[in-house]
Amino acid sequence: MNQTCQFISYDSQGSDNELTSVTRLIFSIYRQFYVYFVLAFGPINIIANLLSMFILTRKELRGSYSSLFLCMTLDHTIVVSLLVATVLKSTFTSNCDPNNNSLARAIFTIVSQNGMDILRAHASWLAVLIASLRFWAIRRRGSFIPSLRSIISWCLLSLLTLVAASTPVFLSTSIQWIPLSQLCRRRNIADDKLVATVRESHWTYYNDCMLLRATYIISGTLYNGIPCLLLFALSILLLRQLRQKSR
User: Fold this and answer.
1) Structural domain boundaries, residue 65
2) What does the pLDDT read at residue 188?
3) DSSP letter at 196?
4) 1 within a domain of the structure (yes/no)
5) Domain with 119 in it: what CATH number?
6) Res 54: pLDDT
7) Considering the domain boundaries, does residue 9 fall inside one?
8) What count of other Cβ atoms lies within 10 Å of the Cβ of residue 155?
9) 200: phi > 0 → left, psi -120 to 50 → alpha, else beta; which?
10) What's the pLDDT score for residue 4?
11) CA neighbours within 13 Å on the CB side: how many for 70?
12) Is residue 37, in this structure, part of any structural domain at all?
Protein backbone atom coordinates (compact mmCIF):
# COMPACT_ATOMS: atom_id res chain seq x y z
CA MET A 1 0.00 0.00 0.00
CA ASN A 2 1.39 3.36 -1.04
CA GLN A 3 1.15 5.69 1.96
CA THR A 4 1.37 8.89 -0.06
CA CYS A 5 -1.15 10.97 -1.96
CA GLN A 6 -0.35 12.57 -5.30
CA PHE A 7 -2.17 15.82 -4.48
CA ILE A 8 -0.21 16.33 -1.21
CA SER A 9 3.49 17.03 -0.92
CA TYR A 10 5.05 15.19 2.02
CA ASP A 11 8.58 16.38 1.31
CA SER A 12 8.71 18.92 4.13
CA GLN A 13 12.30 18.14 5.12
CA GLY A 14 13.77 17.27 1.79
CA SER A 15 13.86 20.80 0.43
CA ASP A 16 16.05 23.37 2.14
CA ASN A 17 15.71 26.44 -0.05
CA GLU A 18 15.04 30.03 0.95
CA LEU A 19 11.27 29.71 0.53
CA THR A 20 11.17 26.76 2.94
CA SER A 21 13.24 28.65 5.51
CA VAL A 22 10.97 31.71 5.28
CA THR A 23 7.88 29.53 5.56
CA ARG A 24 9.21 27.82 8.68
CA LEU A 25 10.10 31.20 10.21
CA ILE A 26 6.60 32.57 9.53
CA PHE A 27 5.04 29.43 10.97
CA SER A 28 7.20 29.67 14.10
CA ILE A 29 6.25 33.31 14.66
CA TYR A 30 2.58 32.61 14.01
CA ARG A 31 2.62 29.64 16.38
CA GLN A 32 4.03 31.75 19.22
CA PHE A 33 1.49 34.52 18.58
CA TYR A 34 -1.35 31.99 18.34
CA VAL A 35 -0.44 30.34 21.63
CA TYR A 36 -0.34 33.62 23.56
CA PHE A 37 -3.51 34.86 21.84
CA VAL A 38 -5.48 31.74 22.76
CA LEU A 39 -4.20 31.67 26.34
CA ALA A 40 -4.92 35.39 26.82
CA PHE A 41 -8.31 35.74 25.14
CA GLY A 42 -9.64 32.18 25.39
CA PRO A 43 -10.64 32.40 29.08
CA ILE A 44 -12.13 35.87 28.48
CA ASN A 45 -14.22 34.44 25.65
CA ILE A 46 -15.39 31.56 27.83
CA ILE A 47 -16.45 33.94 30.63
CA ALA A 48 -18.27 36.18 28.14
CA ASN A 49 -20.08 33.18 26.65
CA LEU A 50 -21.11 31.92 30.08
CA LEU A 51 -22.46 35.37 30.89
CA SER A 52 -24.39 35.40 27.61
CA MET A 53 -25.83 31.97 28.35
CA PHE A 54 -26.90 33.16 31.80
CA ILE A 55 -28.68 36.16 30.26
CA LEU A 56 -30.36 34.07 27.57
CA THR A 57 -31.83 31.73 30.18
CA ARG A 58 -33.58 34.55 32.03
CA LYS A 59 -37.37 34.42 32.08
CA GLU A 60 -37.69 37.70 30.16
CA LEU A 61 -35.70 36.35 27.20
CA ARG A 62 -37.00 32.81 26.99
CA GLY A 63 -38.27 31.95 23.56
CA SER A 64 -37.51 30.16 20.32
CA TYR A 65 -34.80 32.50 19.06
CA SER A 66 -33.18 32.73 22.51
CA SER A 67 -32.91 28.93 22.53
CA LEU A 68 -31.12 28.98 19.19
CA PHE A 69 -28.69 31.65 20.37
CA LEU A 70 -28.17 29.63 23.54
CA CYS A 71 -27.22 26.55 21.49
CA MET A 72 -24.83 28.62 19.37
CA THR A 73 -23.20 30.10 22.47
CA LEU A 74 -22.87 26.65 24.00
CA ASP A 75 -21.16 25.39 20.83
CA HIS A 76 -18.66 28.26 20.89
CA THR A 77 -18.01 27.81 24.62
CA ILE A 78 -17.16 24.13 24.19
CA VAL A 79 -14.97 24.89 21.14
CA VAL A 80 -12.96 27.56 22.95
CA SER A 81 -12.62 25.38 26.06
CA LEU A 82 -11.28 22.47 23.99
CA LEU A 83 -8.98 24.84 22.12
CA VAL A 84 -7.50 26.26 25.32
CA ALA A 85 -7.02 22.75 26.74
CA THR A 86 -5.34 21.61 23.51
CA VAL A 87 -2.97 24.60 23.45
CA LEU A 88 -2.07 24.06 27.10
CA LYS A 89 -1.40 20.39 26.45
CA SER A 90 0.78 20.97 23.38
CA THR A 91 2.70 23.92 24.86
CA PHE A 92 3.42 22.95 28.44
CA THR A 93 3.79 19.17 28.20
CA SER A 94 6.61 17.15 26.68
CA ASN A 95 6.08 14.40 24.13
CA CYS A 96 9.12 12.64 25.58
CA ASP A 97 7.30 11.94 28.85
CA PRO A 98 5.44 8.60 28.63
CA ASN A 99 2.79 9.91 31.02
CA ASN A 100 1.87 12.58 28.46
CA ASN A 101 1.23 9.96 25.78
CA SER A 102 -1.37 7.85 27.52
CA LEU A 103 -4.43 6.31 25.92
CA ALA A 104 -6.69 8.83 27.69
CA ARG A 105 -4.79 11.77 26.19
CA ALA A 106 -4.91 10.23 22.73
CA ILE A 107 -8.68 9.80 23.03
CA PHE A 108 -8.97 13.41 24.19
CA THR A 109 -6.95 14.56 21.16
CA ILE A 110 -9.25 12.79 18.70
CA VAL A 111 -12.41 13.94 20.48
CA SER A 112 -11.22 17.55 20.70
CA GLN A 113 -10.07 17.74 17.07
CA ASN A 114 -13.26 16.29 15.64
CA GLY A 115 -15.49 17.93 18.24
CA MET A 116 -14.22 21.45 17.54
CA ASP A 117 -14.80 21.08 13.80
CA ILE A 118 -18.29 19.65 14.23
CA LEU A 119 -19.40 22.23 16.81
CA ARG A 120 -18.08 25.12 14.67
CA ALA A 121 -20.06 23.74 11.74
CA HIS A 122 -23.10 23.24 13.98
CA ALA A 123 -22.97 26.89 15.07
CA SER A 124 -22.76 27.97 11.41
CA TRP A 125 -25.79 25.87 10.49
CA LEU A 126 -27.71 27.28 13.46
CA ALA A 127 -26.94 30.75 12.13
CA VAL A 128 -28.42 29.64 8.79
CA LEU A 129 -31.50 28.39 10.65
CA ILE A 130 -31.90 31.71 12.50
CA ALA A 131 -31.61 33.68 9.25
CA SER A 132 -34.17 31.38 7.59
CA LEU A 133 -36.62 31.78 10.47
CA ARG A 134 -36.25 35.56 10.41
CA PHE A 135 -36.84 35.59 6.65
CA TRP A 136 -40.06 33.59 6.93
CA ALA A 137 -41.21 35.60 9.94
CA ILE A 138 -40.81 38.87 8.04
CA ARG A 139 -42.42 37.44 4.93
CA ARG A 140 -45.42 36.19 6.93
CA ARG A 141 -45.54 39.36 9.02
CA GLY A 142 -44.50 37.71 12.27
CA SER A 143 -46.98 34.85 12.13
CA PHE A 144 -44.25 32.20 11.80
CA ILE A 145 -42.95 31.46 15.33
CA PRO A 146 -41.64 27.91 15.86
CA SER A 147 -42.21 26.14 19.13
CA LEU A 148 -39.46 25.42 21.62
CA ARG A 149 -39.80 21.70 20.98
CA SER A 150 -39.23 22.29 17.27
CA ILE A 151 -36.14 24.38 17.99
CA ILE A 152 -34.64 21.68 20.23
CA SER A 153 -35.45 19.00 17.63
CA TRP A 154 -33.78 21.03 14.86
CA CYS A 155 -30.68 21.60 16.99
CA LEU A 156 -30.33 17.91 17.82
CA LEU A 157 -31.12 16.78 14.29
CA SER A 158 -28.55 19.12 12.74
CA LEU A 159 -25.91 17.98 15.23
CA LEU A 160 -26.62 14.29 14.61
CA THR A 161 -26.54 14.89 10.85
CA LEU A 162 -23.12 16.53 11.09
CA VAL A 163 -21.82 13.70 13.26
CA ALA A 164 -23.09 11.07 10.82
CA ALA A 165 -21.74 12.95 7.79
CA SER A 166 -18.35 13.25 9.51
CA THR A 167 -17.78 9.49 9.55
CA PRO A 168 -14.94 9.71 6.97
CA VAL A 169 -13.28 12.35 9.16
CA PHE A 170 -13.44 10.02 12.17
CA LEU A 171 -11.97 7.16 10.15
CA SER A 172 -9.05 9.25 8.86
CA THR A 173 -7.28 9.20 12.25
CA SER A 174 -6.56 6.39 14.67
CA ILE A 175 -4.71 5.71 17.91
CA GLN A 176 -1.48 3.85 17.26
CA TRP A 177 1.09 2.48 19.71
CA ILE A 178 4.64 3.36 18.70
CA PRO A 179 8.00 3.36 20.50
CA LEU A 180 8.72 6.51 22.48
CA SER A 181 12.02 6.93 20.60
CA GLN A 182 10.08 7.74 17.41
CA LEU A 183 8.55 10.77 19.14
CA CYS A 184 11.81 11.92 20.73
CA ARG A 185 14.45 11.29 18.09
CA ARG A 186 16.72 14.04 19.41
CA ARG A 187 16.98 12.47 22.88
CA ASN A 188 18.37 9.23 24.20
CA ILE A 189 15.47 7.22 25.59
CA ALA A 190 16.47 4.81 28.33
CA ASP A 191 13.06 3.18 28.67
CA ASP A 192 11.79 2.86 25.09
CA LYS A 193 8.23 1.81 25.86
CA LEU A 194 5.21 1.88 23.59
CA VAL A 195 3.05 5.00 23.89
CA ALA A 196 -0.30 5.98 22.41
CA THR A 197 -0.29 8.62 19.69
CA VAL A 198 -2.78 9.93 17.15
CA ARG A 199 -1.77 9.25 13.57
CA GLU A 200 -3.41 9.01 10.18
CA SER A 201 -5.17 5.69 9.87
CA HIS A 202 -4.16 3.14 7.27
CA TRP A 203 -7.59 3.52 5.65
CA THR A 204 -6.63 7.05 4.67
CA TYR A 205 -4.50 5.80 1.77
CA TYR A 206 -6.84 3.14 0.37
CA ASN A 207 -8.23 3.57 -3.15
CA ASP A 208 -5.96 6.47 -4.07
CA CYS A 209 -6.57 8.34 -0.79
CA MET A 210 -10.35 8.31 -1.23
CA LEU A 211 -10.95 8.71 2.51
CA LEU A 212 -8.60 11.70 2.71
CA ARG A 213 -10.29 13.30 -0.29
CA ALA A 214 -13.70 12.78 1.35
CA THR A 215 -12.37 14.41 4.53
CA TYR A 216 -11.27 17.50 2.60
CA ILE A 217 -14.57 17.69 0.72
CA ILE A 218 -16.62 17.45 3.93
CA SER A 219 -14.48 20.08 5.65
CA GLY A 220 -14.66 22.45 2.69
CA THR A 221 -18.35 22.08 1.85
CA LEU A 222 -20.42 20.82 4.78
CA TYR A 223 -18.41 22.61 7.48
CA ASN A 224 -17.69 25.89 5.71
CA GLY A 225 -18.73 26.42 2.09
CA ILE A 226 -22.44 25.56 2.10
CA PRO A 227 -23.42 27.40 5.33
CA CYS A 228 -21.45 30.49 4.25
CA LEU A 229 -23.16 30.58 0.86
CA LEU A 230 -26.57 30.07 2.45
CA LEU A 231 -25.94 32.86 4.96
CA PHE A 232 -24.88 35.18 2.16
CA ALA A 233 -28.00 34.38 0.11
CA LEU A 234 -30.30 34.72 3.13
CA SER A 235 -28.73 38.05 4.07
CA ILE A 236 -29.56 39.40 0.61
CA LEU A 237 -33.12 38.07 0.85
CA LEU A 238 -33.55 39.61 4.31
CA LEU A 239 -32.36 42.99 3.06
CA ARG A 240 -34.81 42.83 0.16
CA GLN A 241 -37.66 41.92 2.49
CA LEU A 242 -36.78 44.75 4.89
CA ARG A 243 -36.65 47.27 2.04
CA GLN A 244 -40.02 46.12 0.77
CA LYS A 245 -41.51 46.41 4.27
CA SER A 246 -40.13 49.91 4.71
CA ARG A 247 -41.82 51.05 1.50
Assistant:
1) 18-246
2) 66
3) E
4) no
5) 1.20.1070.10
6) 92
7) no
8) 21
9) beta
10) 57
11) 16
12) yes
Residue 13 lies in a domain: no
Q: Bridge partners of 176? A: 197
Predicted pLDDT at 118: 93
Which pLDDT score, from 0 to 100, does residue 95 have?
A: 75
Successive 10-residue mean pLDDT values, the chain, 247 residues: 52 57 78 88 95 88 82 94 90 78 88 92 92 83 74 90 88 85 69 81 79 84 91 89 75
The sign one gets for the Cα dihedral 180, 182, 185, 188 is positive
Which pLDDT value is given to residue 232?
Answer: 93
What is the rounded distance in angstroms from the CA atom of residue 72 to the CA atom of residue 66? 10
Query: Measured between alpha carbons, how far is 62 from 99 in angstroms, rounded to an integer?
Result: 46
User: Identity (one letter) of the amino acid at 80?
Assistant: V
Contacts of 208 (CB under 8 A, 6+ apart): 5, 6
Q: What is the pTM of this model?
A: 0.81
Beta strands in the chain (DSSP E): 173-179, 194-200
Provide the number of structural domains found in the chain.
1
156-165, Cβ contacts within 8 angstroms, sequence gap of 24 or more: 158/122, 158/125, 158/126, 158/129, 159/118, 159/122, 162/118, 162/121, 162/122, 162/125, 162/222, 163/118, 165/218, 165/222
Give how far Cα 149 sits from Cα of 19, 63, 145, 178, Å.
Answer: 56, 11, 12, 48
Q: Report the pLDDT value the prediction gives residue 241, as an integer from 0 to 100.
A: 80
